[in-house]
Amino acid sequence: DVSLLSAFPTKTPDLFSRVTVLHRTHWQHDQVRRWRNHAGDVVSRPTRTLLNAVAAHEPDLVHTHNLPGISTAIWETCRRLGVPVVHSLHDYQLLCPRVTLMRPDGEPCRPHPLLCGLRERRLSRWAGAVSHVIGVSRHLLERHAGFFPAAEDHVIRNPFPRLDLDSLPPPASPPGTIGYLGNLAPIKGIRALLEARPELNRLGYEVRIAGRGPLQGEVEAAAGSEGLHYAGLVD
Predict the structure, then answer these.
(1) How distant is the alpha carbon of residue 12 from its chain centre?
(2) Which residues pair with 181 in a beta bridge?
(3) More confident residue, 70 or 163
(4) Distance between CA 123 and CA 87 in Å, rounded?
(5) pTM of the model
(6) Which among 8, 40, 89, 131 could bridge 26 via Cys, Cβ 3.0 to 4.6 Å?
(7) How many CA atoms lie within 13 Å of 73's alpha carbon, on the beta-carbon side?
(8) Is 75 within 8 Å of 69 (Cβ atoms)?
(9) Is the peptide bond before 174 cis (omega within 30 degrees of 0)?
């Protein structure tokens, strides 16, 4: 039996037997809620409200994911209730308030030892309650080395939907196309891909890009170049 504790209102599939929502507004639509999330990360206080919310589900196991709006205080809450915890890492939210370990322009960012370091220490103070930690890549787990002192780590990659492989043509050998599908944002490395395009073309590769985002104009302008195709937003 699977139930859900969600920080914000969200559409939920029918598989959840019970859904509890902690906050009435979503941080994407409420700037105050966004800043309260950041403050809650640093405070990370196991409140009576959180304790009651978890206890009401009577869980045998709690599996946590990204925690804005809930905070790592849920780990201590579960410890007090005697409930084991598994945490899945999807990004760098525990290490970086921007989640990406990058500056807004896409350049790598070295966490500030005072500001980011203080935040990380606050978030990690309840991490001893986590017995298993899952990362979608080995690199993600390595970047969090030492954050979960008592946890066993595991790599479980993001799942892909089942495909009818018989209907797909075999890939070219050697491959001739490099594709990108996703958000056209600096942190995704789009500019690096555009800069590499002439050398990729020289090596015989065609570059195809699909998606939307803040760098869409740059991608559209570069699409006039030989060997680069932009498909816009695709299903």
Answers:
(1) 18
(2) 210
(3) 70
(4) 13
(5) 0.80
(6) 8
(7) 22
(8) no
(9) yes
